[in-house]
Amino acid sequence: MTVHDIRAALAADKATVGTWLQLPSPDVAELMARAGYDWVAVDMEHGSFGRTGLPDIFRAIECGGAAPFARLPVAAKTTVKAALEAGAQGLIFPMIETREQLNQAISWAVYPGHDDGRAPDEPLRENRGVGYCRANVFGKDFDAYMTRRAPELFLVAQIEHIRAVENLDAILSHPRLDAIMVGPYDLSGSMGLTAQFDHPDFKAAMERIHAACKRHKPLMGLHIVQPDPEELRRQIAAGSRFIAYGIDSVFLWRGAERPR
């Protein structure tokens, strides 16, 4: 599975389902990729990943047949560069609350001269640094990466705070944004309702997000943290198209816990 395949599926209104990786093991990364997911997102925010280990993790995901994505620890120049140069095909930017934050994050992921989605009246921002790295096979595939693969990066903004919900139209109108992903625990926490997903106020916020996605190009996405096939089917039926399903550590807990 490649980013091109993922976009083709989404263009046909099919959901793309990936999963979340927190354990810094290439073996676990390959196993999760071979479990049938379209993409596997390396959680650089809460997982135990160092920069030197990322290439092996991404290689393992590719070996397993999935596209390697990275959820960054923070949308910053150094973290964007670390993930992309190691070979990430998609980036998930955490805690995006404003259009300005998103503009800056995307600019760091886009090479000079490539379309970063800025509006004519928005200022030019610092772009991605150019250099040899694992992503372009240390220069061997430099031209191909620059002209074909780099412009295809899949870019996702995480909606994790009620302030982001207030700014949704500005965020979702960014032409370079492919999808959003709701972080349910952080979003509910920002409302003083941590993990109260059945609370009317949280449900109302989710309805606002769904409605905003229908008004704009970026696709609705979310993380189903606790694996539940029925919830996955329900979210797809409700219109979610970019879904992270489970976490490697949660799958391990469920399978390994001693029977009582």
Describe this structure in words.
It is a single chain. The protein is α/β, with parallel strands linked by helices and 260 residues long. It has one domain (3-256): TIM Barrel, CATH 3.20.20. 42% of the residues lie in helices and 15% in strands. It has an 8-stranded parallel sheet with strand order 6-5-4-3-2-1-8-7. Helix 3 links the parallel strand 2 (39-43) and strand 3 (67-71). The longest helix is centred in the C-terminal third of the chain and has 16 residues, at 200-215. The radius of gyration is 18 Å and the shape is globular.
What secondary-structure arrangement, pairings included, does this model have?
Layout: H1 3-11, E1 16-21, H2 26-34, E2 39-43, H3 54-63, E3 67-71, H4 77-86, E4 90-93, H5 99-109, H6 142-149, E5 154-159, H7 162-166, H8 168-172, E6 179-182, H9 184-190, H10 200-215, E7 221-224, H11 229-237, E8 242-247, H12 248-256
Parallel strand pairs: 1-2, 1-8, 2-3, 3-4, 4-5, 5-6, 7-8
Helix pairs in contact: 2-3
Reading the helices and strands in chain order gives: HEHEHEHEHHEHHEHHEHEH
Strand order of the largest sheet: 6-5-4-3-2-1-8-7
Structural category is alpha/beta
Please give the alpha-carbon distance between the first and last residues: 40 Å
What percent of the residues sit in helical stretches (DSSP H or I)?
40-55%
Q: Helical segment tally?
A: 12
Total number of domains = 1
Report the strand count.
8
CATH topology: TIM Barrel
* CA gyration radius, whole angstroms: 18 Å
Gross geometry = globular
The CATH superfamily bears the name Phosphoenolpyruvate-binding domains
Strand content: 15-25%
Average predicted local confidence, pLDDT: 93
Uncertain runs with pLDDT below 50, 5 residues or more? Answer: none
What is the CATH class name? Alpha Beta
